[in-house]
Fold this sequence. Notes:
The chain contains 7 helices and 8 strands; from the N terminus they run E-H-H-E-H-E-H-H-E-H-E-E-H-E-E. A 6-stranded mixed beta sheet has the order 3-2-4-1-5-6. Strands 7-8 form a two-stranded antiparallel sheet. It has a single domain, classed as Rossmann fold. The longest helix has 18 residues. Strand 5 and strand 6 form a beta hairpin. By secondary structure, the chain is an alpha/beta fold. Helix 2 runs parallel beside helix 3.
Amino acid sequence: MPQHGARLWLVRHGETDWNAQGRVQGHTPTSLNHRGRHQAHALAAALQHKPFAALYSSDLPRAAETAAIIAQGRNLPITLTPALRERSFGIYEGQSSAAIRDARTALGLPQTGDLADWTGMPGIESEAQLWARIDPCLRQISAAHPDQDVLIATHGGVLARALYHTLAIPEGLPRRFALSNGIIAILQWRSDHYYLLSLIDPALLAGSSPTIDTATGSDLPPTPPQDT
């Protein structure tokens, strides 16, 4: 692999009805809702002047639809792969955040309020298993497009795991970054590790706030108005 791999623009898919309802999705093939399609079109507008060498996506509909909207007018094929799917949540898929809280209580686990934190939950794809699936795919994409920009439409769990590894955040520590729909993390493989180039929420840049972190259901503080 070259010393500097591709600049990987990892984009979380637009909102789905299950996002809005606080339901766990995992490998369930949910699609974008009206707001999610609007978010994807806003992403496309924000990225319209950024040339990409290639487009990749999870094969789940909500990510593939996001990629397809961003790809409009680019004359680039989208490579779909199950390696970029969300974590598999097994029996918990389709359940509400309240049901997950009850399950954590029954298992004697602490309440973190973070739907991206599944530490200690049985019958799911573990952190190690998730990373073992994602990491080779990201490295392969990185090696195929050295020093080029590549867009990857994927999921909150994938972004969270990539950022934890990139920033060397120990497992079990709370997540202290947003996972709002449409957020972008730009990573690059350098020598022997990933490097975070940027973490961008296009909605905040556009002044659309508050932004919803649908991995927690919490509102981030609204962006103050700017003088013009």
